[in-house]
Specification:
It is a single chain. By secondary structure, this protein is mainly beta. It has a domain at 45-126: Jelly Rolls. It is 3% helix and 35% strand. The protein contains one helix and eight strands, in the order αββββββββ. The chain has a four-stranded antiparallel beta sheet with strand order 1-8-3-6, with no helix packed on it. The longest helix has 4 residues, at 11-14. The chain is elongated and about 75 Å long.
Length: 131
């Protein structure tokens, strides 16, 4: 089998070399000792929905999947909630009724009503849309 040299790309193209005529730009770098000002990423997308969890639910319901694009999520319910993360069998926390639960974790989130059925309102803000 012979290779056709005209079909082989040039080495500079394969290595994606930059042309030599580009000027060198010097950047001043300095060590910073102490607090550094940061700015939160803007939210690019959001969604809201309600989910009803039956009173007969023995296991908590998965209400949010793990999502690395999620900036934060807010859960609100008119009844107290039991909330756990990553695994429905993990220990849970009881969250009081009518108090927004703001989550910045990107983990799976499971909930169920502390006493009976629960309707949970969920507001999700995403800092990236996966473009």
């Amino acid at each position: 089998m012979t290779e056709d040299a005209s079909l082989q790309p040039e080495l500079a193209v394969v290595l994606q070399e930059e042309p030599e005529d580009n000027p060198k730009i010097e950047v001043c770098v300095r060590d910073v000792h102490g607090p550094v000002r940061t700015q939160a990423l803007p939210r690019k997308a959001a969604t809201a929905f309600n989910k009803t969890i039956a009173a007969s639910a023995v296991q908590p319901a998965l209400i949010l999947r793990a999502d690395h694009y999620r900036g934060q999520a807010t859960l609100i319910s008119t009844v107290a909630l039991r909330v756990s993360f990553n695994d429905p069998g993990e220990p849970y926390a009881v969250w009081p009724a009518n108090v927004p639960l703001v989550l910045s974790a990107t983990a799976d989130t499971y909930v169920r009503g502390d006493a009976g059925a629960a309707t949970v309102s969920v507001i999700v803000e995403k800092w990236a849309t996966g473009e």
